[in-house]
């Protein structure tokens, strides 16, 4: 079955395609490689790059990862890690900007000067945090390019992140 066919089946069944490959919660173990059965959840995390491939140690029934495997894994998952970090920063930045905007609105509509001043102070704190997050996002994107990873496209409201500082 091709990936496109898998996606069509998943859409028809109205389930995430990944659950057709890794039936988490429906099946305990999967034969992830010939002769190697691994917990469905552990298999999924390996597939999505969230953890290194592991082998079960029969003496402890625990998971063992060799050091060389971890180092190789860290290097090979750099694009995934970078994209996850980028997404977290974008979400944090957008939420902080929304919160600052909301606090400014609260301040404008305040019934008294104390509430107005408190709203303005919270807005200024969020705006300061947003500037820090903008720098962090710019740094993440620069580091991605340095590692020869193409950063995700930014929505138009954040396009200024990639503009050179003047």
Explain what you see.
The chain is mainly alpha-helical and 166 residues long. The chain has 6 helices and 4 strands. The chain has helices at residues 3-13, 17-21, 40-47, 67-76, 78-108, 113-146, and strands at 29-33, 36-39, 55-57, 62-64. The protein has a two-stranded antiparallel sheet. A hairpin with a 2-residue loop joins strand 1 (29-33) and strand 2 (36-39). Helix 5 runs antiparallel to helix 6. It is elongated. The N and C termini lie far apart (52 Å).
Keyword list:
two-stranded antiparallel sheet; 9% strand; 166 residues; elongated; single chain; 6 helices; two-stranded antiparallel ribbon; mainly alpha; 60% helix
Compose a concise summary of this entry.
By secondary structure, the chain is mostly helical. 60% of the residues lie in helices and 9% in strands.
The proportion of residues forming helix, as a percent range, comes to 55-70%
Work out the radius of gyration: 23 Å
User: Which strands sit side by side, in order, in the main sheet?
Assistant: 1-2
Structural class: mainly alpha
Supply the number of helical segments.
6
> In one word, what is the shape?
elongated
Assembly category = single chain
Would you list the SSEs in sequence order as H and E?
HHEEHEEHHH
Main beta sheet: 2 strands, antiparallel
Beta content:
5-15%
Mean pLDDT: 86
Low-confidence region ranges: none
β-strand number: 4
Q: Measure the end-to-end span.
A: 52 Å
């Amino acid at each position: 079955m091709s990936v496109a066919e898998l996606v069509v089946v998943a859409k028809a069944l109205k389930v995430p395609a990944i659950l057709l490959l890794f039936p988490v919660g429906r099946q305990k173990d999967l034969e992830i490689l010939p002769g190697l059965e691994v917990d469905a959840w552990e298999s999924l995390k390996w597939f999505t790059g969230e953890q290194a491939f592991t082998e079960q140690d029969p003496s402890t029934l625990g998971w063992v990862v060799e050091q060389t495997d971890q180092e190789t894994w860290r290097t090979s998952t750099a694009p995934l890690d970078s994209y996850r970090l980028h997404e977290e920063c974008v979400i944090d930045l957008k939420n902080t900007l929304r919160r600052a905007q909301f606090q400014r609105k609260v301040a404008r509509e305040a019934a008294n000067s104390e509430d107005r001043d408190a709203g303005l102070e919270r807005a200024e704190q969020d705006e300061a945090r947003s500037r820090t997050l903008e720098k962090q996002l710019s740094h993440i994107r620069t580091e991605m390019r340095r590692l020869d990873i193409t950063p995700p496209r930014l929505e138009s409201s954040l396009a200024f992140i990639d503009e050179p500082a003047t």
